[in-house]
Predict the 3D structure of the following.
Amino acid sequence: MNTLISAQGNEQQSALATQQNSTDQLKKIRSALRALRDAVVLLNDNDGLEWWNQAAEDLLLLQVSDKGQCIFDFISAPEFRQYYQATTIADEGVHIESWHAPKRYLKCELTPFGDEKLLIIYDVTRLHHLEEMRRDFVANVSHELRTPLTVMMGYLENFSDQPDMPPHWKRGFELMTQQTARMNRIVNDLLLLSRIEIEETHELHYIDMTKLLTHVYDDAQAYNAGYGHSIHLQIDTYDGLYGSEMYLTSALSNLVINAIKYTPKGGNITISWANTAEGCRFAVEDDGIGIAPQHIARLTERFYRIDKGRSRATGGTGLGLAIVKHVLYQHQANLQIESVEGRGSTFSAVFPATHVRSAHTP
């Protein structure tokens, strides 16, 4: 009997020790969260404030009596509400401008926490300003390079046309002309990319996608003259889009030209436009060289190249997919890449229903 009582006592002491250890760990975690410079807010299943640290209290001007209040009473930015209420929480979070301090920029990230949510708010003002400086620098340098490049191209063209040009000089002038033209393409793409980045929003117009894709197809056929591919245009819906026709034409043409350049001669390329459950999908499918899995995530980085030698040989600037990514971002669309090395690739632009206009809409 005494042995049983002793065993029960040991079990109770062990349970109490475990409970005390858990309590101590919880206190340490809360202390650590309170010490963070980033705002941390625990939200209940009704979107109400459950707990917050000191940084969140300072940022959102919270008081003890605010416990249980809805988070939208304190963060009213429409983009935050859209991000918060989305079916799938975006991994990259959402950037908003502070409602208390102009020119202060915040990044909000949500993490599911059982039936609750953990909201972390970072101050990214410094990063935002650095990004602005980078964009301005690239735009200014690119703009300043245009004039000297134009002058060089003009003189090189005039010298290259001289009938008495010595043969050993002619080759040199041809190479200089090629490289100057390549640099000019890079400068033009940098300027386009800078303009797209600066214009975070643009006026939306209705775009007849059947007409736009027909133009893209015609341009592709002209570019295809030296490749001999079989190019097909497949339009399964007459639905159009709201957006920027100039930027969309540039982005979708980029995807088609890439398929032509990176498919061995005599290949097959299909351009398609169809409805999906989410909205509409533009796709370019080829049976070209394909892409190894480790490269796919980095394809939209500026100047990222899988094969530097091949990219230069095809005249690429390394900016095409970066332009595509930013244009699609402006249209709330996303780029999806499926590829099998040696068998081909499919690049898809999926546009949400909010940017689609049904062909049956008057």
